[in-house]
């Protein structure tokens, strides 16, 4: 392949739907030639990224991700998805994942990012990462979710800055974990998102058995109850990566699914079980709750209430002796 790629030829030959399919994404619904995806550029629960493959355009109704790009051609999508990669690198990635042959070549000096999009400075930067335990706010948040005791080695303290719409630099911190596409999933009491583009997180264990979770906190909730379970673990981080998860799960003999008890989670479970042999729905474990972590937090609240009641009871001789 030439080191120099023709933008117009890429737009003509690369199907945006085909590119998304090869990246592991699948539409949640199709209406009148428009395909709606859960946005892979940011966190969301309702499919709002619309692709019209006939016109070769896309639009994210939910807003732009960290790149600031929310619509355009397959080139624009590549710049948003592989942000902050440079323009030449993005073109080569589009051709690679689009799986097309590009014959024409044009000197990159004549290729420019479309004039409608000025060159952007990165809107976020990871300043540093620390092991858990130095930030009391992060530790308290993880304890409140019932996963503080098992989080070390899985989660980190991520300190990052974001350039807001008024070009003011704001500093934040959150618990975070890496995904396979080089991004960092971050979460604190007030925010849930991704620095970089989305990807699954995989923890290698048994070669025969795989546990699949929709979210990382659900995985850690399971880990809190199965500390020595040797199974391999796959966390989607977003249901938009369901296709990727199914492809990865196909090589295991037993696949256990722990998805949310909501409309999207049930649909994903049904699709997974139908497409991946020997996969099974294990969400009955937290029946009556939205997800694994909600069940864990509910149990923690009950324990705290019981402990509080016992500590103030005048008829508790054991506590009286301890005093």
Folded structure, characterized:
By secondary structure, the protein is an alpha+beta fold. The protein folds into 3 domains: 7-110, DNA Primase, Chain A (Alpha-Beta Complex); 121-199, no CATH class; 200-323, 3-Layer(aba) Sandwich (Dna Topoisomerase Vi A Subunit, Chain: A, domain 2). Helix content is 32%, strand content 22%. It has helices at 7-13, 16-22, 74-81, 87-98, 136-144, 148-151, 216-225, 242-249, 263-275, 292-311, 317-322; strands spanning 29-31, 34-37, 49-52, 57-60, 71-72, 124-130, 156-163, 169-178, 184-187, 192-195, 201-203, 209-213, 232-235, 254-258, 279-281. It has a 5-stranded antiparallel sheet with strand order 1-2-3-4-5, with helices on one face. A 5-stranded antiparallel sheet has the order 6-7-8-9-10, with no helix packed on it. Strand 9 and strand 10 (192-195) form a beta hairpin. Helix 3 crosses helix 4. The longest helix has 20 residues, at 292-311.
């Amino acid at each position: 392949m030439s080191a120099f790629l023709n933008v117009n030829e890429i737009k003509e030959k690369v199907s945006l739907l085909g590119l998304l399919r090869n990246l592991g994404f699948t539409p949640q619904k199709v209406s009148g030639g428009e395909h709606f995806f859960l946005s892979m550029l940011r966190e969301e629960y309702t499919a709002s990224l619309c692709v019209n493959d006939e016109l070769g355009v896309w639009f994210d109704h939910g807003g732009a991700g960290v790149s600031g790009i929310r619509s355009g051609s397959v080139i624009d999508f590549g710049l948003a998805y592989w942000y902050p990669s440079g323009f030449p690198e993005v073109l080569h990635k589009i051709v690679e994942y689009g799986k097309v042959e590009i014959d024409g070549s044009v000197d990159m000096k004549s290729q420019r990012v479309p004039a409608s999009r000025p060159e952007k400075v990165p809107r976020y930067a990871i300043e540093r990462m620390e092991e858990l335990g130095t930030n009391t706010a992060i530790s308290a948040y993880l304890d409140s979710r019932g996963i503080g005791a098992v989080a070390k080695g899985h989660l980190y303290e991520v300190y990052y800055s974001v350039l807001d719409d008024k070009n003011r630099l704001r500093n934040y911190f959150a618990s975070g974990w890496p995904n396979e596409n080089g991004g960092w999933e971050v979460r604190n009491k007030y925010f849930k998102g991704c620095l970089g583009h989305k990807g699954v997180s995989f923890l290698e264990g048994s070669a025969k058995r795989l546990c699949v979770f929709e979210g990382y906190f659900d995985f850690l909730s399971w880990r809190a109850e199965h500390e020595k379970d040797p199974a391999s673990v796959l966390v989607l981080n977003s249901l938009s990566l369901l296709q990727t998860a199914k492809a990865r799960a196909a090589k295991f003999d037993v696949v256990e699914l722990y998805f949310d008890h909501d409309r999207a989670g049930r649909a994903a479970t049904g699709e997974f079980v139908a497409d991946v042999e020997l996969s099974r729905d294990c969400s009955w474990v937290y029946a009556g709750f939205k997800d694994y972590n909600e069940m864990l937090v509910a149990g923690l609240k009950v324990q705290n209430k019981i402990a509080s009641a016992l500590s103030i009871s005048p008829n508790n001789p054991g506590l009286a002796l301890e005093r």
